[in-house]
Specification:
Blueprint lengths: L11 E19 L5 E20 L4 E6 L12 H13 L5 E7 L9 H16 L6 H11 L3 H6 L2 E5 L4 E4 L6 E7 L6 H13 L15 H9 L2 H4 L4 E2 L2 H7 L3 H10 L4 E4 L6 E5 L2 H14 L4 E7 L5 E5 L1
Parallel strand pairs: 1-8, 3-4
Antiparallel strand pairs: 1-2, 1-12, 2-4, 2-5, 5-6, 7-10, 7-11, 9-10
Bound molecules: 4-diphosphocytidyl-2-C-methyl-D-erythritol 2-phosphate and adenosine-5'-diphosphate (ADP).
The site of adenosine-5'-diphosphate has 20 residues, from helix 1 and helix 2.
Length: 315
Amino acid sequence: MSGVSLSVVSSSVTVRAPAKVNLHLGVGPLRKDGYHDLITVFQALSLYDDITVRQDPELSVHTRGDGAASVADDHTNLAYRAAVVLAEWANRAAGLSIDIDKSIPVAGGMAGGSADAAGALVAVAELWRLDIDRAELSALAAGLGSDVPFGLHGGTALGTGRGEQLVPVLSRGEFHWVLALADGGLSTPTVFAELDRLRENRAAADTPSGDPARPDRLLAALASGDPHAVAPLLHNDLQPAALGLKPALRRTLRAGLETGALGGIVSGSGPTCAFLCADHDSAVAVAAELAGAGVARGVRVASGPVPGAKVIDHG
Ligand SMILES: C[C@@](CO)(OP(=O)(O)O)[C@H](O)COP(=O)(O)OP(=O)(O)OC[C@H]1O[C@@H](n2ccc(N)nc2=O)[C@H](O)[C@@H]1O
Ligand SMILES: Nc1ncnc2c1ncn2[C@@H]1O[C@H](COP(=O)(O)OP(=O)(O)O)[C@@H](O)[C@H]1O
C-alpha cells in the first residue's frame, strides 16, 4: 500500500514534573509590585506529580494523591490556568480534562503547584502538537508564577528576578536528600510578609535586608559534587520567618542533624525540611530515624538534580 501516511494522534499525554528545593535563597527588599528580588539556587528532586491531559468538551481539573483535598479543582488551580494561557496562545478552545496525581506536598515549599502548571504546559503542547519554543513556554510559565519556569527547566539552576530568570548551574554527581513533610502548609505570601516584618523589627539578623549576593562558594561546591562541601553552605533567608510561623520545625531540623544528615534547611517558604546526606544509604538511615522520631508527618528519600517536566506516556 503506497501513499498512505499513518499519523498517530495521542488521546492522552502524561507528564512527570519534579519538586524543587532551594539550596540557597537570598531575598532582597520588598519591591513596589509586591514581589522580592531573589538570588536562589534551585535543585529539582525525584519527588514528582504526574499530570495527564485529554481532549474533552469542557475544561476541567481533577486532583488526587497527597494533599489533594486542599487543592481547589477549579479555575484557580495552576494547571487549569496553564491550560487557559496556552489555549489563548494557540488561539484554540481549551477543551481538556486535566488529571493531577500528587506526591509533592501541597503548600510545602516544594513548588508542587508550579510543577503542575509546568507539567500542564508541556502536556497540552504535546497533545496539540504545538510549535512553541522553550523561550515562549518559559514566558507563559513566568506569567503563571515565579517558580513555574524552573518546573520546566529542572536540573540545578540559578534564579534571579522574582526567581523566574534562570541560568543552568554546573552540578556534578547526584545529591541525596531526606524530606521531612509537615502537618499543614505555609502560605508563600505570608512567609515573605513575616520576613519583611522581622526585618523591620531587626529581628532577622541573619537575613540582611540589602540586595542579595550570588552564592559563589555554593556554586563552586556544587561543581565539585561533594555533599560535605555543599551542606554547610545551604542557606535560606525565609527560614527565620518559616520557623517563627511554625516553631515545631526547629525540632525537626535538630532531629535531622542529630540522625546524621550533613545539613538541613527549610525548603523555600516551608514547612518541608530538606536534609542533605552523604549518600543514598545514609539518606535511607536518616529517613528511618526521622520517621521514628515523630517530628514529621512523613519522610521521603529523594535525589537531585533531575530533569524538568517531561512527557512519560502517550495514551
Ligand atoms: C518561595 C519560593 C522559593 O522558590 O517558592 P516556595 O517555597 O513557596 O515553593 C518562590 O519564591 C515562590 O514562588 P511562587 O510560589 O511561584 O510564587 P508566586 O505565585 O510568584 O507569588 C506568590 C506570592 O509570593 C510572594 N513572592 C513570590 C516570589 C517573589 N520573588 N517575591 C515574593 O514576594 C508575593 O507575595 C507573591 O504574591
Ligand atoms: N495544582 C496545584 N497544586 C497545589 N497547589 C495549588 C495548585 N493549584 C493552585 N494551588 C494553590 O497554590 C498554593 C501553593 O501550593 P504549592 O505550590 O503546593 O506550595 P508552595 O508554594 O509552598 O511550594 C496552595 O495552597 C494552593 O491553594
